[in-house]
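Consider the tokenized backbone below.
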């Protein structure tokens, strides 16, 4: 599960579980109490500025506001108790208002959401992505650069700043699976799913590599993505029914920022009578990397409703 998926998964039940189990703060997770929901208290503003700077200048992170954290025997801060935010909707509004001024330059892609325990009060969760446009300076009387180390933020030294100002923009590759149509071909019947790699980062992805665990009831089309047997990246393993298929390339193959790069087509065998079952969700697990991009393990979900509606639109159910 990547950081954004973790952010999306956090709900009241998960926060209560963090507190019950004494969840430790770590490189990408921080718990914070607040003084006032309107962010007029200077400590609240400074905490926001330091977190935005520190997480964006490191590998990104999540703040759960409204949780008290204390140190355990190892000296690591752990979730200890609820510190419910009164008027959490006001707090979210102020977070959105100050996110653009708490650091310089602005961190793109920051998200805030409320987690309610009743109509007005609750917790708040903030997602801060890793940034490749930094370093980002914390404002609100801080005027310092921060990074995340362990469970704490620290002031960046001169050599840290030299390194970050010279840091190259990074690519970020995500698998995108588009359900295209139902194939009536006698050679390759099934639901046709186009597999692409999308570069959502700011740097060019050179020599991309993709490893996919083929979902149950799926196989790779022998005709590639274009009907002529071609694949966007060279197929390293050649069996259409193999559970793991690898695609690779050399430095001459690049995926520019914002570009969706076709890989190949998957064929899903189907039974229309079973498509009303939500357990038929398709999860595509994969690993992806490229030059200057550490290998990442991710997954892509195709919801059963999409397949059901496709059959319905074709008059097949």
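A designed sequence for it:
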């Amino acid at each position: 599960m990547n950081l954004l998926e973790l952010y999306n998964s956090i709900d009241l039940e998960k926060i209560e579980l963090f507190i019950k189990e004494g969840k430790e703060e770590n490189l990408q997770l921080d718990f914070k109490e607040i003084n006032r929901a309107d962010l007029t208290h200077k400590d609240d503003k400074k905490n926001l500025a330091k977190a935005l700077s520190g997480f964006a200048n490191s590998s990104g992170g999540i703040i759960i506001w409204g949780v008290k954290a204390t140190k355990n025997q190892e000296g690591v801060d752990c979730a200890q108790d609820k510190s419910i935010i009164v008027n959490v909707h006001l707090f979210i509004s102020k977070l959105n208002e100050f996110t653009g001024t708490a650091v310089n330059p602005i961190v793109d892609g920051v998200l805030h959401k409320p987690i309610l325990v009743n109509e007005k009060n609750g917790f708040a969760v903030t997602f801060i992505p890793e940034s490749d446009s930094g370093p980002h300076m914390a404002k609100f009387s801080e005027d310092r650069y921060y990074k995340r180390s362990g469970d704490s933020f620290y002031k960046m030294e001169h050599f840290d700043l030299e390194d970050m100002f010279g840091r190259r923009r990074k690519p970020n590759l995500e698998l995108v699976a588009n359900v295209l149509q139902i194939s009536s071909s006698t050679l390759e019947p099934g639901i046709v799913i186009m597999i692409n790699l999308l570069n959502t980062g700011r740097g060019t992805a050179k020599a991309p590599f993709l490893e996919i665990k083929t979902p149950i009831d799926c196989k790779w089309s022998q005709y590639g993505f274009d009907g002529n047997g071609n694949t966007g990246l060279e197929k390293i393993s050649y069996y259409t029914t193999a559970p793991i298929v690898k695609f690779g390339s050399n430095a001459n193959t690049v995926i520019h920022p914002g570009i969706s790069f076709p890989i190949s087509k998957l064929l899903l065998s189907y039974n229309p009578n079973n498509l009303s079952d939500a357990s038929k969700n398709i999860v595509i697990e994969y690993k992806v990397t490229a030059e200057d991009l550490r290998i990442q393990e991710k997954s892509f979900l195709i919801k059963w409703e999409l397949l059901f509606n496709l059959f319905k639109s074709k008059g097949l159910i």
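The longest helix spans residues 42-56.
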